[in-house]
Design brief:
The complex is a heterodimer.
Chain A lengths: L10 H23 L3 H10 L5 H13 L2 H6 L1 H28 L6 H5 L1 H4 L10 H27 L14 H28 L4 H13 L4 H21 L7 H13 L10 H9 L5 H5 L1 H6 L6 H9 L9 H4 L6 H5 L6 H12 L23 E4 L8 H13 L4 E3 L10 H5 L3 H18 L3 E4 L2 H10 L6 E3 H10 L11 E5 L5 H4 L3 H10 L1 E3 L22 H16 L5 E4 L2 H8 L6 E3 H7 L4
Parallel strand pairs in A: 1-2, 1-3, 3-4, 5-6, 5-7, 7-8
Helix pairs in contact in A: 1-11, 1-13, 3-12, 5-8, 8-9, 9-10, 9-11, 12-13, 16-19, 20-29, 24-26
Chain B lengths: L21 H9 L11 H5 L10 H9 L6 H5 L7 H5 L6 H12 L12 H11 L1
Helix pairs in contact in B: 1-6
The chains are: A mainly alpha, B mainly alpha.
Chain lengths: 599, 130
């Protein structure tokens, strides 16, 4: 053993670990205290259940193996996995090795600086040679990931990323410290090996090189170990203030999510966990239509979270939250599954709090229609501009003999979601209250809507006791139960997934089933979760017509690629957007079905 | 007095010396597409809120453009922001942005940081002193 079990150079490392531990516990404690009532109730309800088992599995799969990133790109997944899982294994195997070498217990740093304190196998423990070689293999694994990370900095395209994140100064310094850790570790182990001949195949080889160069010297060895310790200590000290806080935070976030905690409309402690769990990988940037078509790269999820996190530092960052289509593409791409749109909405709500006052007194006198035994049909504001959709729905209702109440035939009350998307929380609540009152008093058995925006609103924001269906779901149900007989025509169609229906509510298969029953459905390159926004989404109030058209054209090109006869969609807004894009007919699914009913 | 459903209309004369167009300038800066408006009234015809009340969006934005700001915020509160006006507009004016920005200018909310601001107000007062 090198003198004894302590040396001055371990101090930076120990101080770093101590600081990280104390600071993280304090930070997490503060956030947990800021959870709101609903979130606390969820935790209290589910904490004594077996939900921690799936949480552990997910934390292992996502935190260490980075499964979702691997699905995006193999090489990118390998890079993240080798750094996370490789380092994790280094720590675990190192701890086992130290435990075998010092069965009577040892201080923490012995495991980390094992080769220094145990240079000559003086205490013969079983499989010492094997462990030394294993540690070397693991170090090579981590170093290969590090090499890829450096390569990505120069040229990120082979790793599946066209653009990478622009990091803050703190993140860059922390990254530098992280990058120094592993080369320094290799160098210090090699330096010890050049003096004592210990270590695995790689360290011993490098040690021989060092001694042949004539630097086998205790002073050199000491300085190497000191640098390694300082790199570790610096990294641990910077961790709570940099992107690397996501390493621990993600585990907590996964657990809370498994317990059923959801984000609310206000910034709570849970939001703080989400903000810190963002690893700032920048995967959200590539998919964003604002980047792809307009080249705007300052408002994507990663920058929005950054601006929320550093609100005190960057006051001007608030408009970032306003400039977004809310198409949820980033939510689908995010490897941490952060609910970016809800956090963005929180900022918008905060921005609008001074002008969030409605004057909807005029809605008071509207009375519902007594519709016991009927279904309520809510066309939505936009369907009034595409009357073909509501007319087709009426045809379908009549064909199956379903009595219905067309709720907003003459008097349209908005569902409130467009207001809520813009952050007008109270105004949206007033509209929701009126609509709920109408639906409850009408005693309708089911609510069917033609507009995905309304559908998501009724499904998620209203608390209705009756089932809510989008018309594609309803038609699919009619076909499956055999009530609606359709003929198949020779049209070849491509289907455009509306953002609010697909990514918003997860309705992908029902519209496709309906289309397959009546037409020939073609595949497009980017569909389902990766479908493109039509650009006319109500989420972004700042885009002008040319910008919206540019986004629309990209989506159109994607739909036109398989050379269809008709473009099908399930959203009046998308229909309106594509109508003038090309000479091709654009039809809603309801219209296609209404044309093909067998009487 | 009994209301007969009609009244003597107020004078519509504009006094250019008394006009304070700073809010209009701000609006045009924030929503440049408003310059394209031809006042066709399509927005009003499509409007959901206009189906219930005398809410008239063309009247409102015209009044704003003429710097007659009184009572506009009360009117704009009736808007449900559904976006039908946006889709019918033949000139591609971003009407929703127009509504949001008119409201925030009328309420003196800073267009960048979204906080209530003082500068706009003091500029007004400065203008009136001259």
């Amino acid at each position: 053993m090198n003198s004894d079990s302590f040396h001055l150079f371990v101090i930076p490392f120990v101080a770093g670990v101590f600081f990280l531990l104390v600071f993280s516990v304090w930070k997490y404690w503060r956030w947990i205290k800021k959870f709101d009532k609903l979130q606390r109730a969820k935790i209290r309800k589910n904490i004594w259940t077996w939900r921690f088992l799936p949480a552990i599995w997910e934390a292992f799969r996502e935190g260490l193996l980075h499964w979702r990133i691997t699905k995006k790109n193999l090489l990118l997944g390998y890079m993240h996995r080798s750094l996370a899982f490789g380092w994790f294994l280094l720590i675990v195997v190192g701890a086992v090795q130290a435990k075998l070498a010092f069965p009577d217990g040892h201080p923490l740093w012995i495991a980390i600086f094992f080769n220094y304190f145990e240079p000559s196998y003086s205490i013969d423990f079983p499989k010492a040679e094997f462990f030394a070689n294993l540690m070397d293999v693991l170090l090579i694994y981590v170093l290969s990931g590090l090499f890829l990370a450096m390569f990505k900095k120069v040229w990120s395209r082979p790793l599946g990323m066209k653009r990478t994140t622009r990091h803050t100064l703190m993140d860059r310094v922390a990254k530098l410290a992280l990058w120094c850790i592993f080369p320094f570790r290799l160098l210090s182990e090699a330096a010890t090996s050049s003096l004592y001949g210990n270590g695995g195949f790689m360290t011993r080889g490098l040690g021989n090189v060092l001694s042949s160069m004539g630097v086998a010297d205790p002073a050199f060895e000491m300085s190497c170990w000191t640098l390694y310790s300082i790199a570790l200590g610096t990294f641990f000290c910077l961790m709570p203030f940099s992107r690397y806080m996501h390493i621990f935070t993600e585990v907590f976030l996964i657990y809370f999510r498994q317990l059923g905690v959801k984000d609310s409309d206000k910034k709570t402690g849970y939001t703080m966990f989400e903000l810190s769990a963002c690893s700032r990988c920048g995967i959200c940037i590539d998919g964003c239509p604002m980047n792809r078509e307009l080249g705007i790269v300052n408002m994507q999820g990663v920058y929005m979270l950054q601006s929320v996190r550093n609100l005190e530092l960057q006051k001007n960052a608030e408009p970032i939250a306003e400039n977004c289509l809310m198409c949820d593409r980033c939510v689908a791409d995010c490897p941490v599954n952060l609910d970016l749109s809800i956090i963005r909405r929180q900022v918008r709500i905060k921005n609008k709090k001074d002008i969030d006052k409605g004057g909807y007194g005029y809605l008071r006198n509207i009375q519902p229609f007594n519709s016991i035994g009927r279904v309520a049909y809510f066309g939505g504001c936009m369907s009034h501009l595409t009357p073909g959709i509501s007319r087709s729905m009426e045809t379908i209702f009549n064909a199956v003999g379903q009595k219905y109440w067309y709720m907003d035939k003459n008097e349209t009350i908005c569902c409130g979601r467009p207001l809520l998307q813009q952050g007008f929380e109270n105004q949206a609540f007033e509209l929701r209250r009126k609509n709920t009152e109408m639906i409850v008093n009408s005693k309708a058995t089911m609510l069917i809507t033609s507009c995905p925006i309304c559908y998501q609103s009724f499904k998620k924001e209203y608390k209705l006791s009756i089932p809510v269906m989008h018309h594609t779901e309803y038609i699919n149900m009619l076909i499956e139960s055999g009530k609606l007989k359709l003929r198949k025509d020779d049209r070849r169609v491509t289907y455009h997934d509306p953002c609010e229906l697909g990514r918003g509510c997860g309705i992908y298969d029902q519209p496709r089933n309906v289309l397959r029953a009546t037409t020939t459905l073609l595949k497009t390159k980017e569909e389902r979760e990766h479908s493109l926004c039509c650009g006319f989404n109500l989420g972004n109030p700042t885009l002008d017509l040319e910008q919206q058209t540019a986004i629309r054209n990209a989506a159109r090109d994607n739909l036109m690629a398989p050379k269809p006869d008709t473009i099908a969609t399930a959203c009046p807004m998308c229909k309106k957007a594509f109508q003038h894009a090309d000479n091709i007919p654009v039809k809603d699914i309801a219209e296609i079905v209404a044309e093909n009913i067998i009487k | 007095m009994k209301k007969f459903g009609f009244e003597i209309s107020k004078g519509r004369q504009l006094n250019f010396d008394e006009m304070k167009p700073d809010k209009v300038e701000k609006l045009l800066e924030l929503v440049p597409s408003y310059k394209l408006c031809i006042g066709c009234g399509g927005c009003t015809a499509a409007c959901s809120a206009a189906g219930f009340t005398d809410y008239n969006f063309r009247k409102i934005h015209t009044a704003f453009f003429r710097a007659q700001y009184e009572g506009l915020d009360e009117q704009l509160k009736r808007c449900m922001l559904c976006g039908k006006c946006l889709l019918v507009c033949p000139r591609g004016v971003n009407t929703r942005s127009l509504i949001i920005n008119m409201r925030r200018i009328l309420n003196n909310v800073d267009p960048v940081t979204w906080r209530p601001q003082r500068e706009l107000k003091s500029k007004n007062e400065g203008g009136s002193n001259e």
